[in-house]
Write a structure and sequence with these properties.
The chain is mainly alpha-helical. The chain is 56% helix and 8% strand. The chain has a two-stranded antiparallel sheet.
Length: 72
C-alpha cells in the first residue's frame, strides 16, 4: 500500500497542476489516465485501490453517470 500512497500523492500533485478543463471528466478516462501514467500497467486491483482511496479522502466524487468531480 505504501507504493500506492506514493503514486497517489504524485497523482494528486500532477492533477492539481492541470487546469480544470484539462482533467479527465469521466471515470473511464480517469481510470485510463491513472493506469497509463501512474501504475505502469499494474493490475486493475491496484487501480481500484487508487480510485477508492481518492474517494475515501474526498478528493473526487464519481457521479451516477460516470462524471468525475474534483475537490482539489
Amino acid at each position: 500500500m505504501e507504493n500506492i500512497s506514493l503514486d497517489l500523492d504524485e497523482l494528486i500533485g500532477v492533477m492539481s497542476g492541470l487546469e480544470r478543463d484539462r482533467r479527465p471528466k469521466k471515470v473511464k478516462t480517469l481510470r485510463n489516465y491513472i493506469q497509463t501514467f501512474f501504475l505502469n500497467g499494474n493490475p486493475d486491483s491496484d487501480l481500484q485501490i487508487v480510485l477508492d482511496e481518492l474517494e475515501r479522502r474526498d478528493l473526487i466524487y464519481v457521479g451516477i453517470n460516470g462524471d468525475v468531480i474534483y475537490n482539489f
